[in-house]
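[Discussion] Sanity-checking designs against the backbone

I'm trying to build intuition for which residues belong where. Below is a structure token string of 93 positions. I'd appreciate it if someone posts a full sequence so I can compare it with mine line by line.
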């Protein structure tokens, strides 16, 4: 994996596709995008769907970790439903 600053791409766009491997694009030393090589036969929509699925799985894992950290992982479904009712009525939890 190679880290490439956006300013480098402005000077030489070929840096994105010269050589194998992934490229992490950065702006102000912060990661902003991931680029990777595609084959002519790759189904881009399938790749995007896989990426979205991975993002969703990461979001679920973050939510689970948050619940464990805050001690909310032992809530019953009834507890969850009551919390939702309170939130809809504008009551504090």
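Best answer:
Here's mine. Compare freely.
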């Amino acid at each position: 994996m190679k880290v490439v600053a956006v300013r480098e791409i402005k000077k030489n766009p070929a840096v994105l596709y010269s050589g194998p491997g992934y490229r992490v694009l950065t702006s102000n030393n912060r990661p902003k995008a991931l680029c990777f090589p595609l084959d002519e036969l790759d189904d881009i929509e399938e790749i995007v769907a896989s990426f979205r699925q991975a993002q969703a799985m990461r979001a679920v894992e973050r939510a689970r970790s948050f619940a464990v950290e805050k001690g909310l992982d032992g809530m019953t479904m009834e507890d969850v439903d009551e919390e939702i009712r309170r939130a809809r009525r504008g009551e504090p939890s």
